[in-house]
Hints:
Blueprint: E1 6-12, E2 15-21, H1 25-50, H2 56-65, H3 71-78, H4 81-104, H5 108-125, H6 136-149, H7 158-163, E3 166-167, E4 170-171, H8 172-175
Antiparallel strand pairs: 1-2, 3-4
Helix pairs in contact: 1-4, 1-6, 2-3, 4-5, 5-6
Amino acid sequence: xxxxxxxxxxxxxxxxxxxxxxxxxxxxxxxxxxxxxxxxxxxxxxxxxxxxxxxxxxxxxxxxxxxxxxxxxxxxxxxxxxxxxxxxxxxxxxxxxxxxxxxxxxxxxxxxxxxxxxxxxxxxxxxxxxxxxxxxxxxxxxxxxxxxxxxxxxxxxxxxxxxxxxxxxxxxxxxxxxxxxxxx
Length: 184
């Protein structure tokens, strides 16, 4: 085990945060990626295999009942047949694909982005702030964003191999730098 520490530094809006990662951090980052991958794969597979997933009732009823600040948007989505049809496919299969991507560490940042987006929508739809604004949906959104920020797909994942694939003497991400936003 290496005892080397790695320095983290980022400046946003004129404020700089500095920290150090411990060598064990890599295992916790991997654990977060795998935990969210298994959770989403399981949830999506359950919906796909049941064959009875329908978002219409939830979209039309749950957000207004729990006082969501965007309840009208959810109701409008639930009353739009083509959108409900889209959500009925996008949610279960999105969960399956996000889960698989995270488990194998492939297109990890892309998967984590869509996972965070789904968790944001669940947070707004499942609005429950009687115990504060931070709940499980919000926390999972932050876990997805952390998985993306740490480039967790490079840790025992396929993204490390994809990024280093040789294309005419350059690595794939050297040749196509935009891939850094979906890999890692």
